[in-house]
Design goal:
With 186 residues, the protein is α/β, with parallel strands linked by helices. 20% of the residues lie in helices and 27% in strands.
Amino acid sequence: MEAPHSPAADPAAAFATRLTVDSPRRMQELGRRLAALLRPGDLVMLSGELGAGKTTLTRGLGEGLGVRGAVTSPTFVIARVHPPLGDGPALVHVDAYRLGGGLDEMEDLDLDVSLPDSVIVVEWGDGKVEELSDDRLRVVIERGVGDTDDDRRVVTLSGIGGRWGQDELTGLLGHEGNQPHESQDG
């Protein structure tokens, strides 16, 4: 079975930012930085081939949000809820890879009930969860072409809906130089 993969930025995006991340440690740091922008009710959709770094990014999101429990791939349980350790939102981490249908099949997960109070991160959610929210952040992680041992990834963040704009995503660009960006599209 070929893994679903859509490298292109979403044409409905209000703004897209492209970053180059050169290690798993920096992918996790990107997740921590992204967590600072997230708030209850946010939907984050992650796309990329197997091993691209989706769970590593989500691990950083969990650290940044200050949630309980180790963030690991929810492939076999479909969804994991990580309650907050403090005042922040819970993190609901979903792996929709094995789910074939759209939102109807995902209704059993009650994501629409969790959304207002949580940050929901869905791996492999393209074509399955868009109806949950008009506002969402789509993150596409692509491996470098060629050498498969290279840890470098190109990450495209596309803000969709009024919630996401240039100001929110521009702050993710590497100010310390440890996450250089390739381009900004606006």
